[in-house]
Amino acid sequence: xxxxxxxxxxxxxxxxxxxxxxxxxxxxxxxxxxxxxxxxxxxxxxxxxxxxxxxxxxxxxxxxxxxxxxxxxxxxxxxxxxxxxxxxxxxxxxxxxxxxxxxx
Length: 104
Known about the structure:
The protein is an alpha+beta fold. 42% of the residues lie in helices and 21% in strands. The chain has two domains: 1-44, no CATH class; 60-104. The strands form two sheets. The chain has a three-stranded antiparallel sheet with strand order 1-2-3, with no helix packed on it. A two-stranded antiparallel sheet has the order 4-5.
């Protein structure tokens, strides 16, 4: 294991850990090296989650990648969800039109 400490910045293997403190109103500043490492800029949205007393910051881009991976596990290769939704909606419209005509 490679461990290097410079001030409040610690790198372990290929990871990056920076010590910071909680400011007024519970604010936490994400230091520039961390922002660069995860590819976020001022104004970007991130998601905070807590698991086992650890706070995790996830970028919107990473959240989308994870969601896409989950969907790929559930949708068979070659199947287009968009095409399926369009077909379902068209069938629903046809049913609604038949029901409306039958009730007139």
